[in-house]
Write a structure and sequence with these properties.
Layout: E1 13-16, E2 19-29, E3 32-41, E4 52-53, E5 56-57, E6 67-70, E7 79-80, H1 81-88, E8 97-99, E9 104-107, E10 110-113, H2 120-131, E11 134-136, E12 142-144, H3 150-154, E13 160-162, H4 171-178, E14 186-188, E15 212-214, H5 222-228, E16 237-239, E17 260-262, E18 285-287, E19 315-317, H6 327-332, E20 340-342, H7 355-365, E21 371-372, E22 375-376, H8 379-392, H9 394-399, H10 413-418, H11 422-429, H12 445-448, E23 449-455, E24 465-470, H13 475-486, E25 494-498, E26 506-508, E27 526-530
Keywords: Acetylation, Chaperone, Cytoplasm, Cytoskeleton, Leucine-rich repeat, Phosphoprotein, Repeat
GO cellular component, one term: cytoskeleton
Organism: Hylia prasina (green hylia)
């Protein structure tokens, strides 16, 4: 073997300039003298062929142009973990100590007292390394752990390590590093294309305190995740984006402490795959961005009931997917703990041209939602959305057999499947009556006028006044009108209204810039004026 080629070179990760690849062949090539490395590059644009030369196949590549041959001296096989730490933080043997003037030594960026001993540099280096808690050696060509126990001797306080985009070839290397960091809580080994165990192996205690683990872009499969997870007894956050995960399996006796799972940018074959991870008892956040799912369904219960799946799930991200039917949004109301949803860039959102109406529909369909696409849902916004939903689909409800009289109220199964929350909205706000649901007339000014009763509760001598006001009139302009009507300063007015359908409930009109229709005021309602 060539002196510049490690004995375990085959399968190792290497870098050449800014390019990364995996060694697939070590040896001679045709009649050309010397040893060559056959490398499959991560970026196929870096390659020249599929691993063959002059008709002989030396190695195989996934991409027909993904491979090339390079001389060993062009390949960087990397350094051990501790060397990378010292290099990154200016603590290695060649650059750590410069003698200052008088009785001082300049160490890294710090000046320390010189005590006249030859071992001062090494002692101070140990002190500095032991102070490191949060370490990043991203893109530092780390390929192996180094001498056993050397890391634990010199970096005793490490808790958080970023090992992303290095030259780590196998999960065993990660274990060898982590086993020397006794209180490791956070580990990022993303962007390392590694080999993972294919069968159940001895469970290391290297990750006994690990809470957060990132394995993005490592080519790990879900089966391999479950095998490795036997060694993650207290893991709370697991990031697995951009891998080879297409099929899920039920995690029996592993990942039971998990609170966050990120599966984004993995092409799951079927939305029903989610049922296999639905029993994770503590899972609070699930990120499924760009996973190719087209539907969501919880078949264990009917509408109006809460599923036993995902019992703790509070935050769900399903943006950038292929969900085309509103029925999947209806299904999300079955989740007992759901509070926040991200669902942008799905085909179902193209069915409604008005973005405000789209948001109202989602809010009305999911009863416990508090945050939608990173925007908080205010109580007034929810009330308006639910009242509008009740009104918009009221005619369809009547035509499907709905009735304000409970004894005659028998909406069809088809209507309830499309609008499962409608009965609950009728209970909350009262069933719509035929009079308020007459077909939409052309939007003339007459049809946009609201007939409102205006009262001054604090002035019993002032008789109620009936006024016809455009629903597009802002609260500020209503105050100006009332100022002229009652001869009182408009800026000091406090307005609210009582709905004719919700007796005893009073809603403040607290935003001067909003129109009357924002508050879902209807003809027959009563505006209350105070000052």
């Amino acid at each position: 073997m060539d002196a510049g080629v490690p004995p375990d070179a085959l399968g190792r990760r290497v870098s050449c300039g800014t390019d990364y690849g995996t060694v697939r062949y070590v040896g001679s090539v045709s009649s050309i003298a010397g040893i060559w490395l056959g490398v499959e590059w991560d970026d196929p644009q870096r390659g020249k062929h599929d691993g063959s030369y002059e008709g002989t196949q030396y190695f195989k590549c996934r991409h027909p142009k993904g491979g090339s041959f390079i001389r060993p001296n062009k390949a960087n096989f990397g350094v051990d973990f501790l060397t990378a730490v010292k290099d990154r933080y200016g603590l290695n043997d060649t650059q750590d100590v410069q003698y200052g003037t008088g009785d001082t030594v300049v160490f890294g960026t710090k000046t320390v007292e010189f005590v006249g001993m030859d071992s001062v540099a090494e002692q101070q280096r140990q002190v500095q390394l032991n102070k490191l808690v949060d370490i990043s050696v991203r893109e530092c060509a780390v390929s192996h752990a180094g001498q056993e126990e050397e890391v634990s001797r010199t970096c005793a306080n490490m808790r958080h390590i970023n090992l992303s985009k290095n030259l780590i070839s196998s999960w065993e290397t990660v274990i060898a590093i982590a086993s020397q960091v006794h209180n490791l809580e956070t580990l990022n080994v993303s962007e390392n294309k590694m080999r993972f165990p294919s069968t159940s192996t001895f469970t290391s205690h290297a990750f006994s305190n690990l809470k957060i683990l990132a394995l993005n872009q490592t080519e790990i499969t879900w089966t391999e995740v479950l095998l490795c997870a036997q060694g993650w007894p207290v893991l709370e956050e697991l990031y697995l984006s951009s891998n080879n995960i297409t099929v899920l399996e039920r995690p029996d006796n592993v990942l039971q402490t998990l609170k966050l799972l990120d599966l984004s940018d993995n092409q799951l074959l079927d939305g029903n795959q989610l049922h296999l991870i639905a029993q994770l008892p503590r899972l609070e956040q699930l990120i499924l961005r760009n996973t190719g799912i087209s539907s969501i369904h919880f078949p264990d219960v009917g509408f109006g009931c809460k599923t036993k799946m995902f019992p703790s799930l509070k935050r769900l991200a399903i943006n950038d997917n292929k969900i085309s039917q509103w029925s999947s949004i209806n299904e999300l109301d079955k989740l007992p703990s759901l509070r926040a949803l991200q669902c942008n860039n799905n085909p179902f959102m193209d069915t409604e041209k008005n973005p405000e109406t789209l948001i109202q529909l989602i809010i009305a369909k999911i009863s416990q939602l508090e945050v939608l696409n990173n925007c908080e849902i205010l109580p007034a916004e929810r009330r308006g959305a639910e009242l509008d939903y009740r009104k918009i689909f009221g005619k369809a409800w009547l035509e499907a057999g709905g009735h304000w009289n409970p004894e005659k109220n028998k909406p069809s199964e088809e209507f309830l499947a499309a609008h499962p929350r409608y009965p609950a909205l009728c209970l909350k706000y009262g069933a719509p009556e035929e009079g308020e649901l007459k077909g939409r007339q052309p939007l003339t000014l007459k049809n946009q006028l609201l007939t409102l009763t205006i009262k001054c509760p604090e002035n019993p001598e002032q008789k109620p006044v009936e006024k016809k006001l455009p629903e597009s009139m802002t609260i500020q302009k209503v105050k100006g009108l009332l100022y002229r009507l009652f001869k009182i300063p408009g800026s000091e007015l406090k307005l609210s209204y009582e709905s004719s359908k919700l007796e005893g409930k009073e809603v403040e009109l607290d935003n001067d810039l909003k129109p009357l229709q924002f508050y879902s005021i209807e003809s027959g309602d009563c505006v209350l004026v105070r000052w």
